[in-house]
């Protein structure tokens, strides 16, 4: 039976740790952490299945703190488990500590996702629940069988990404997803009624969720709600906990000022006195509280050991299972692929080249899953969908995720799939809509997740759809995100190489940019260096006689062919054409290699790309030429726009001759 007195004692200690750490840092968010403490405590103490000795155990329950500003709540719980030490709490929000301001999964053991941008934690939790359901259907419930828990705040619920992701979760029938909503009616700037009148019970029920409401400070009600949620197999559950912000404080319960600012020393002392804790003891963590909290640990450890033994037995006894496990456990760098024969005489759009690669990977990479934001035919994902099947409530073996017109939720859900482990995720849309998805792409990069973000229709060559659909600033916008590979291949050969690079990444996401329009193939007989050159980021595609250029034309994607054509029209000039499908990889090469491609003594340089021109100055210098696009497009056939904007060989030749 629960020990009500000891449980409340533990909750009070957690609240005191929250107050002490935020006060010592003179920074942080104590109020929400204190209102959520009862729900989180009951979950961690009584229900969360994990291995106290191995925070990375594969079949653990996942817990995502979507309300990342409540990080001290999670750090307090991880200290109770033993993954953190009291000294970690003393260095909350300090440089180099394991307790940063918002949870970061690659820094802190027991943190499942990097959260902070509101709503994305819920979406990532949904991705984890998707991965659990997919893997359970493939590997068996004896290997994969866990819940995904998420704690959200009022701010999370207001974030639009929540709506899109939650709608998908209900549609997919993710019965092992349980979300706690700390409904304390307060957000940073004041009471929520200033900004929100939503009835979240009705809203989530309309999304096909199972919704329960409890007093978020009543442990019996919380306990019963979790049991009811676990018993619901066909719908995700939202547990709305009606709470009071800064619950337990002496004078500031319900005060919105506690959301984003530490409590005063006087308030902390008075609050500890009210809770029955020593008011002058900072970071107080008595042994009786630890012993009570850890009462289940021996049983949890034994269950994890039994699971690991069962896994080894299954690997030995079942060859087909062993092959599947090897596939999902294989380091990305060890993957190898074979591609169909290449017909160099057939012009092919690089989006079609991507589709060919995707279809070839269906058998070669059976743990590849993903889909399109309602652009299946345009993104070339329709065949993958039709062959692998659509994932859904009754089709867990389906590998296609039909995201609908939900670019941002798509990206965040893919992050959750990657965080779970075992699957390779991709999502596709038009490049111009990467803006909708951008913060999820950024969070892929922040978390070192090898997600494939696929973008087709990569330039004004979209044509008649006009300026709303023609990306201009988007290529460089993506290149500005640290730790993101932006790959813009020039043809089928480079597209295959780009896919191989993206699928070999262990800690970097990739943005793959593909054309709508058909392009010539870089004939391997004429350009044998193309297939391997992509791995260097930029390479010499066509060199000047004797390897001594006087002019270098650097281009990416479809404009590589424009550069080649222009070079052929200027036989009197010694021109080197450099294809640069990935500037991030090129920048990481040795100085010797970079000098071999772009010799510093060759200052006559040209860059050609159908997008913003200014950032190219890094490569062409002050004396160079950039043929780019620094304005929005127009609605017209692509060939007309190419003439209008000067993306013709004749115009490029004229620019080069006029300048050099």
What do you see in this structure?
With 660 residues, the protein is α/β, with parallel strands linked by helices. The protein has 4 domains: 4-295, 3-Layer(aba) Sandwich (Rossmann fold), CATH 3.40.50; 300-329, no CATH class; 332-519, 3-Layer(aba) Sandwich (Rossmann fold); 533-659, Rossmann fold (3-Layer(aba) Sandwich). The chain is 43% helix and 12% strand. The strands form 5 sheets. Strands 1-2-3-7-6 form a 5-stranded parallel β-sheet, sandwiched between helices. Helix 1 packs antiparallel against helix 10, helix 2 packs parallel to helix 3 and helix 22 (559-568) packs across helix 27 (649-659). The longest helix is centred in the first third of the chain and has 22 residues, at 4-25. 52% of the residues are buried.
CATH homologous superfamily (4th level) name of the largest domain: Thiamin diphosphate (ThDP)-binding fold, Pyr/PP domains
Q: Average pLDDT value?
A: 97
Structural class: alpha/beta
The N- and C-terminal alpha carbons lie at a distance of 85 Å
Largest sheet composition: 5 strands, parallel
Radius of gyration: 28 Å
| Whole-number total of structural domains | 4
């Amino acid at each position: 039976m629960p020990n009500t007195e000891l449980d409340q004692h533990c909750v009070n200690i957690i609240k005191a740790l929250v107050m002490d750490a935020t006060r010592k840092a003179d920074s942080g968010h104590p109020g929400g952490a204190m209102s959520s403490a009862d729900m989180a405590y009951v979950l961690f103490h009584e229900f969360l299945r994990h291995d106290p000795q191995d925070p990375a155990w594969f079949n653990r329950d996942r817990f995502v703190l979507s309300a990342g500003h409540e990080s001290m709540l999670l750090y307090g719980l991880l200290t109770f488990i033993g993954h953190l030490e009291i000294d970690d709490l003393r260095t909350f929000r300090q440089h180099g500590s394991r307790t940063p301001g918002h949870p970061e999964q690659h820094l802190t053991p027991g943190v499942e996702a990097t959260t902070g941008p509101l709503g994305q934690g819920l979406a990532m939790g949904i991705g984890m629940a998707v991965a659990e359901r997919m893997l359970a259907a493939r590997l068996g419930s004896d290997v994969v069988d866990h819940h995904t828990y998420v704690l959200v705040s009022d701010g999370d619920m207001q974030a639009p990404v929540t709506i899109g992701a939650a709608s998908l979760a209900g549609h997919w029938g993710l019965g092992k997803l349980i979300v706690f909503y700390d409904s304390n009616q307060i957000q940073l700037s004041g009471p929520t009624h200033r900004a929100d009148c939503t009835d979240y019970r009705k809203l989530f029920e309309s999304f096909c969720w199972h919704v329960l409401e409890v007093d978020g400070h009543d442990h019996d009600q919380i306990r019963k709600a979790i049991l009811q949620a676990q018993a619901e197999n066909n719908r995700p559950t939202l547990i709305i906990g009606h709470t009071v912000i800064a619950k337990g404080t002496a004078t500031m319960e319900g005060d919105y000022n506690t959301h984003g600012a530490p409590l005063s020393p006087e308030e902390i002392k008075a609050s500890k006195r009210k809770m029955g804790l020593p008011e002058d003891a900072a970071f107080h963590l008595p042994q009786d509280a630890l012993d009570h909290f850890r009462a289940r640990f021996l049983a949890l450890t034994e269950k994890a050991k039994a699971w690991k033994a069962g896994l080894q037995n299954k690997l030995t006894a079942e060859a087909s299972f062993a092959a599947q496990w090897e596939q999902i456990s294989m380091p990305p760098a060890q993957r190898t692929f074979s591609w169909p024969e290449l017909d160099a005489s057939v012009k092919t759009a690089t989006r079609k080249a991507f589709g060919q690669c995707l279809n070839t990977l269906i058998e070669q990479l059976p743990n590849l899953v993903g889909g399109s934001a309602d652009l299946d035919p345009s993104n070339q994902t329709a065949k993958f969908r039709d062959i692998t099947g659509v994932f859904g409530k009754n089709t867990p073996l389906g590998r296609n995720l039909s995201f609908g017109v939900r670019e941002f939720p798509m990206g965040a859900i893919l992050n959750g799939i990657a965080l779970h482990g075992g699957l390779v995720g991709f999502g596709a849309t038009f490049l111009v809509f990467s803006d909708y998805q951008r913060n999820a792409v950024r969070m892929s990069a922040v978390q070192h997740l090898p997600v494939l973000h696929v973008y087709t229709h990569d330039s004004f060559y979209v044509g008649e759809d006009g300026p709303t659909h023609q990306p201009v600033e988007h290529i460089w916008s993506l290149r500005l995100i640290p730790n993101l590979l932006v790959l813009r291949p020039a043809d089928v050969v480079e597209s295959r190489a780009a896919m191989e690079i993206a699928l070999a990444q262990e800690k970097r996401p990739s943005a793959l940019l593909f054309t709508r329009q058909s392009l010539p193939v870089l004939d391997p007989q004429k350009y044998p260096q193309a297939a391997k050159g992509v791995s260097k980021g930029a390479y010499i595609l066509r060199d000047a006689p004797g390897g001594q250029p006087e002019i270098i034309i650097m281009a990416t994607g479809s404009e590589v062919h424009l550069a080649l054509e222009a070079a052929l029209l200027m036989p009197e000039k010694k021109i080197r054409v450099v294809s640069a499908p990935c500037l991030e990889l090129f920048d990481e090469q040795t100085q010797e290699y970079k000098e071999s491609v772009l010799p510093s003594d060759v200052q006559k340089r040209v860059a050609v790309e159908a997008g913003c021109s200014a950032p190219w100055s890094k490569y062409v210098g002050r004396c160079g030429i950039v043929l780019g696009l620094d304005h929005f497009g127009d609605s017209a056939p692509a060939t007309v726009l190419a003439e209008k904007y000067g993306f013709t060989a004749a115009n490029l030749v004229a620019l080069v001759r006029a300048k050099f």
